Request: fold
Amino acid sequence: MEDSKIIFSRPTALKPTVTHYCPGCTHGVIHRLVAEVLDELNLREKTLGVAPVGCSVFAYNYINTDFLEAPHGRAPALATGFKRLRPDMIVFTYQGDGDLASIGMGEIVHAANRGEKFTVIFVNNGIYGMTGGQMAPTTLEGQITTTSPKGRNVAEVGMPIRICELLSSLVTPAYLERVAVHTPQHIIRAKRAVRKAFTYQTQNRCFSLVEFLSTCPTNWGLTPGESVRWVEENTLKYYPLGCFKDPDKEVKTDGTV
Amino acid sequence: MAIKKRHLMLGNMACVHGAIYAGMKFFAGYPITPSTEVAEGCARELPKIGGKFIQMEDEIGSIAAIIGASVAGVKSMTATSGPGYSLMVENIGYAYMTETPVVIINVQRGGPSTGMPTKGSQADTMQARWGTHGDYTAIAVAPSTVQECLTETVRAFNLAERFRTPVTVLLDEVIGHSREMVTIPEKGELQIYNRIKPACKPEDYVPFEMTPNGVSPMAGLGEGYRFNVTGLTHDIMGFTTNRPDEVAPKLDKLAGKILNYRDETVKMRMEMMPDAEIAFISYGSVSRAALQAVMLARKAGVKVGTVQLYTIWPFPDKQLIEACSGCKKVIVGELNMGQLVYEVARVLPDNIQIHAIQRYDGEFLTPMQLLEKLDEVI
Reply:
């Protein structure tokens, strides 16, 4: 076997450890995509991750770069301060939908509007995972959570927030794309988006955000297999995939390029 | 007398039942460990009694929403833990300045910062007193059992309504996440205090009137009384003032309405104190360990007692001096690096030796640890 060579291995940007994530949660897949891109672009040694509060508060236990864990929702503000002082380094925030779209809404909107040159990995599973399944701003209409025990009543709490669409209304140039990771095909496409986001950052082009439609089998009360079907049948219907803004392309208002 | 139904209940859930018993009709909150069950319980229970639950975008929005609801005349509450309480302190000052009664449950966890979400602590003791900016007089109460989570929440609402001021309930993770038997009191069994409404005609209403006890009758906004509310320092009509002869009296009113009637706020439990030479002083979960330690030490003939504080703020200066007047030594036990002990040292006369035992590793103080400390102090 002397002439055999390694063609596939764990990315060096991913620590060889077991994660605390539940079976069927897609945080692991998303972690891996980020790690693979950091490896392929040879960025790991000069990258700072900013972790949120939520399930992925422990991202620093798995992604092998320097990390800051931010107070709940403030990751884009911490990232701003660091990136402004060290534009030579690569900075990404890794945030859930509670962290980014609820308590951190102010920070993400202003970071995007200032055109901060860092990358946001936004993981949207439509629920608060770490605190045990409360309604999030992204929870689907009628979805049952512990704080919407009869299902999300949009007459009372409004429709779920579409972050990519919301941020795409800002005039400042940005790269915004929504992806999914519930099938291998979607994972391959998602990786392209992550690669593009980090590439734009290396070129100091613009703010970049990739929104992942994720799962939460534990708090959705579904099996991992059922969760994948839930994404296909429910999440994707409300959250269309695609690129919403790209400095290289003219983007239509419906998200198509 | 009928046998009362008892429920196996979480401390956080007992706060919900206490609040509903006290007449809470509005809850706004944001998920945070270890207090989330309070919000979840309100989401389930409030709609059943015609109340309203709302999950807000963060803790700042949550406390602002309950202030808005209270101004409308409705008893309102939020619940959080350290990081959320830190975000709320600006609005707690606003509630204090605008004389708006609200109740804040703080299920304390390890800190500072994100700290240890699932571990107990009493490290927000001083924050509950000094958290907001500006001169401020706080009221904070603290239960030590699940049943007391219910009764102290009722008391917190009563104090908030009596003094027109925000009141904090200091739980810790140990109490909030304990399950014990609870009896929900019958209607009328516990006294319920409601804010005093104006008796005058709407055109004669002075919303921040200087009354003898400092508490102004409070109309519900929208009930026909002219009402202007501002966090800026204001005159008796509620409009901004910088006049020295109005500013100082306003701040005196805010503090005086509480401090001049602080005996009404005090609640302490004393066990084995009449002949005690040494006393444990504590609150919350530490008081449970102290009680156990005292019982064991008494069997060995040690003259030791325990003083449990249910009211932390305003600190019961006079009552603590009285309670400890026969003691030569006291031991202050708390789950932090030393906060309550500063108040005890401030209050007790020099002839009483003050010792402290503190734990801030996320675990709670055990009776054995308190006995070891007692042994060392003797």
User: Anything to note?
Assistant: Residues 267-377 of chain B form a domain with the Rossmann fold fold (CATH 3.40.50.920). Residues 73 and 220 of chain B are 4 Å apart (CA to CA). The first strand of chain B starts at residue 6 and ends at 10. The first helix of chain B runs from residue 11 to 22.
